[in-house]
Amino acid sequence: MAIKIEQVKSVLLKNARVVDPQVKLDQITDILIEKDIIRKIGPVREFKGKTVDCKNKIVIPGMMDMHVHLREPGEEHKETVITGCHAAAAGGFTELACMPNTKPPIDCRSDVEFIKERAENHLVNVHPIAAVTIGQAGEQLTEMGDMIEAGAAGFSDDGKPVLTAALMRRALEYATMLGKPVIDHCEDLSLSESGVMHEGKISAVLGMPSIPSIAEEIIVARDLLIAEYTEGLLHLAHISTAGAVRLIREAKSRGVRVTAETCPHYLVLTDEAVRGFNTLTKMNPPLRSENDQKMLIRGLKDGTIDTIATDHAPHAIEDKECEFQVAAFGIIGLETAFGLIWTHLVEKKLLTLEELILKMSVHPRQILQLPENKIESGAPANLTLVDPDIMWTVDNTAFESKSKNMPFQDWKLKGKTFGVINRGKMILTV
Amino acid sequence: MQLKSRHLLGLEGVCQEDITLILDTAESFKKVLDRPIPKVPTLRGKTVANLFFEPSTRTRFSFELAEKRLSADSVNFSKVGSSVAKGETLKDTARNIEAMKINFVVMRHSAPGAPHFLSQCLDSVVINAGDGAHEHPTQALLDMMTLRNCFQSLKGLKVVIVGDIEHSRVARSNIYGLLTMGANVGVCGPATLIPREIKALGVTVYPGIEEAMKEADVLNVLRIQLERQKEALFPSLREYRNLFGITRERLDRVNRRITIMHPGPINRGVELDSDVADGDYSVILSQVTNGVAVRMAVLYLLDGGRQKLEGDDHGN
Ligand SMILES: [Zn+2]
Prior knowledge:
A: 430 residues, Urease, subunit C, domain 1, TIM Barrel, eight-stranded parallel sheet, B: 316 residues, alpha/beta, four-stranded parallel sheet, globular, binds zinc ion
């Protein structure tokens, strides 16, 4: 499926259920868009331009994924800024933040500008997350101020943790001064060591080197203490364990300025999936236990976990067609995230539509201190169109992403996005 | 006479009937090995590739001998240390094997699941000769065969595996096989070398060797690897011996027969004292003999088990 970006002169979304908890909106009505602005929310009788029939469909504020690996520069055979943006749009996202662990890492102004330039004319807004330390080497801080001016939305050494407590302290103090968060990948490297899956019953069965949940929790605890001490803006990426959820909940209850994310795969799969040595179930942090999964869902529900991000991690076939221990960590997620969350959380009443909008659209922008995205007349039209009833089968051969690595092939899902509108452009995917 | 699975990747999930079939067949082959010309034409015209990505003398030797006794042609490939490093991928290696029209692949590899991966890329029959710390099915089969020779049945037998359980494929395959056959299985070793959730596999964990010996009919003593000392998993061989070594004094204190097994090679004076290893209760050398018979049985059965065995006396 080749994606087609249409320029919007004027377009009418007819008979849509329009939902935006930010403005307490939930009604069936029409939305009239002119260029990049919402002109009217309400019945439109006479209209000559392009009309999208949205009967039994839902329109929500454009979704944002704040944890994407675009692989450009350096590994363009896996993904590029453009193919990643296409994949995002196909998955219903109008904005994304991309991680700096490219080759070389995004650690100076010109790197940030390069990413911005690549995405310049796309429908999807790309917000580069820049490295905390030069070369992500864990030594010297990057020129954060300069990079924010160029468009950096936050800082992370993702791929690995901010190496030391001292460095985390300085990074948080400095980034917070500039109004942007530090995003940490929480992993105590001495504990995870050569581990490739969750330490638990399944790793005992398979005899596989494993990563205990405390590898994540110890760095979460460290970061929370530092955030409390520095009053820094801390965001914890891809939280996967029950213990981490408990620590974050406790910190939040005492007013620590922390936000946290989890990913769809932790919500729909457990380490049971690793039986059979399918390398498409290998990611970092690893798929955890059933109890961890239960606590993540509870954390989402009670507000401990603020956002669902994909950790979209494209890899070439040969990086996954090998022994489990040798295989690359990570799976792609942009084109399955919505369907997985809708099918496995919303349909099962574990999450409401409003909560989904908060987790996948509203909070990511708040966390990165970006302009809010509300559905109201006069506001920029930045929208995701949802078909809540469609039954579909995951098929990675039809993906926009350059890579195909994910364990959801042939899964039957209910609910899919069918279009996005942003920056005066529209992509319809059915 | 056929196994339910096309490959032998592990003993987890292999049913009692199949294990019994392999052990019974191995007994017939053991008789073949006692003949003046210990060879049968069973696999004549079949080719076996022995792929060893990890050093191994005993297992490879045992497989090669089993293949020769069955009149199969065998080719050997060993490429130590290259598996996890970048180089030719396992998939490419597999494709090359396939192109050479090989019937069986016997593989030893440091990565758990490597033979499973191989079996997905190949038409040949794959036999796991040890994959990392995951499984070593033929070792557990020969252990069970040895135990069946000593005891009436495996049912209700109490076997304690002693040593580095975490890194042991021998331990895992024994656990799966023995539990399937109705034995009770215990593990005993330094807490740092016992997987955290090993109990979920259905085994008893003994914190000390004395408690284990109080209850065990059999001790299967694993080789302790020197490298583990450097990884801070135990302080010294001396301390290991003090806490977990199977010594004559310890055995005497139990005052009852405990059968001693060891997959080899033995660190004498560390996990096992020489007078125990060479003593009356040791069945270590029978294990080695049975290894060849079990591997012949596995090859024969995975080939379809079609040829008649008894009276197949003509040799060549
Ligand atoms: Zn990460």
